[in-house]
Structures are given as C-alpha cells and as structure tokens.
C-alpha cells in the first residue's frame, strides 16, 4: 500500500485495505472518479492501483509549492481548514484543465458505455457491454483496465459485491433486491468472500454496525449506488 506523506496521492483501490492513522490528525482531500483520476494523474489505474505515493510524483513543483505554503499556513492557524481545502480544489482544477490532460473523446464514450452497462442491472451480462461499444472485446478490456484497474468481468464483480453490501446494510431492503443477490451468487460462502474482499466486512457485520450502514448508504457511492437509489 505505501506510507502517507503530508501531501499524498492514493491510487485507485481495487479492494478493501486497512488504514492506520497515528493522531492527532486532520485529513483534507478529494476523491476522483476513474476518469477524474486519469485526467489528474496521467497514470493508468492498472499500473498504480492500491498504492500511496508522494504528491510530488504527479503534481508539478510550482503547484506543490503552493500547496505546501497553504498547508503550513493551515497548521499555523493563519488560514482555516476550509481555505486549505479550497487550495487543494483549485490545484486539482488547474491540473485537470491542462490541455495535455484532456482525455480522448472515444475513450469518454467507452467509459459512458461501461457506466451505463453497470447501471443497467444488478448483475448485467458481459455480452451486453460488448454490444454497446463498436470496438473489439480486447480493446474494451484494455480501456477498462486503464481507467478502472481491472477488465470488465472483475469490475462487475466489485460493483456487484459493493451493491450487495449496500442492500444487506439496509434495515428493510426490498425483497426484489434480496432475490437478485441470491441469483447473483453461487452460495453464501461466495457472497461472504466477495463482500469481505471489497468492503472489509462480513454480511453479518453489515447489519449490526450503524457506522457501516452509514458508510454504505447508496447516496454516498455515486454510480455504484445508482441502481439501488432507483429501486
């Protein structure tokens, strides 16, 4: 995984991992969509996933200097945490608007197709994705690995497990959604293994921990929770 720095970048996480903080600590940052990560970092998700590294490996010296000044001012109380967060936001915006970071239009189209496919059902067939894009299966897999870190089959596996966790964490999930879980998994062991891998919790813990239930609220999970918000 790596060790954190004052200014740290966490590459896309493909599964749950422990995080240890030795406090007191205040964490201010931003999260990226798969496309956002690619635009900001210029790095492929499948080459750097599940790692943390110093921001200087991606951010230019000039941008890094501005952030370090703002960080020092925040520590000294000269500016508020909110103003430091705005400095981080402004830096991200400037980097993402660099002409060299603009993604190709055809790549954007593939990512939209992947998102629509993931949203189309709890466990959509892989063939449906290939039917949506006028590219070979190999090209789609390559782009999926570049932006999401894994090919479509593994991406679906992750989204499916997180969605299952969201359903199981609800107090009274609709019967239809519970039925979809039963259809999507071979047996209970399969469900437990996938949910624990991608969320860090067993299905039993999901229903017993109020904190976990809040973390897995579909409203906080963007595209992953879209199908559940519509149910």
Notable features of this structure?
globular, Arc Repressor Mutant, subunit A, mainly alpha, 231 residues
Helix share of residues?
55-70%
Low-confidence stretches: none
CATH homologous group name of the largest domain: Homeodomain-like
- By secondary-structure content and strand pairing, the structural class works out as mainly alpha
Strand fraction band?
under 5%
Q: Tell me the series of helices and strands, N- to C-terminal.
A: EHHEHHHHHHHHHHH
Question: Could you describe the largest sheet, including whether it forms a barrel?
Answer: 2 strands, antiparallel
Number of domains: 2
How many strand elements?
2
Tell me, what's the shape? globular
CATH top level class name of the largest domain: Mainly Alpha
Strand numbers in spatial order across the main sheet: 1-2
In round numbers, the mean pLDDT is: 87
Q: Quickly count the helices.
A: 13
Structural write-up:
This protein is an all-alpha fold and 231 residues long. The chain folds into two domains: 8-101, no CATH class; 105-229, Homeodomain-like (Arc Repressor Mutant, subunit A, Orthogonal Bundle), CATH 1.10.10.60. It has 13 helices and two strands. The protein has helices at 34-41, 45-48, 61-76, 81-96, 105-120, 126-132, 137-148, 152-169, 175-184, 188-199, 203-208, 210-215, 222-229; strands at 8-10, 52-54. The protein has a two-stranded antiparallel sheet. Helix 8 crosses helix 10. The chain is globular, with a radius of gyration of 19 Å.
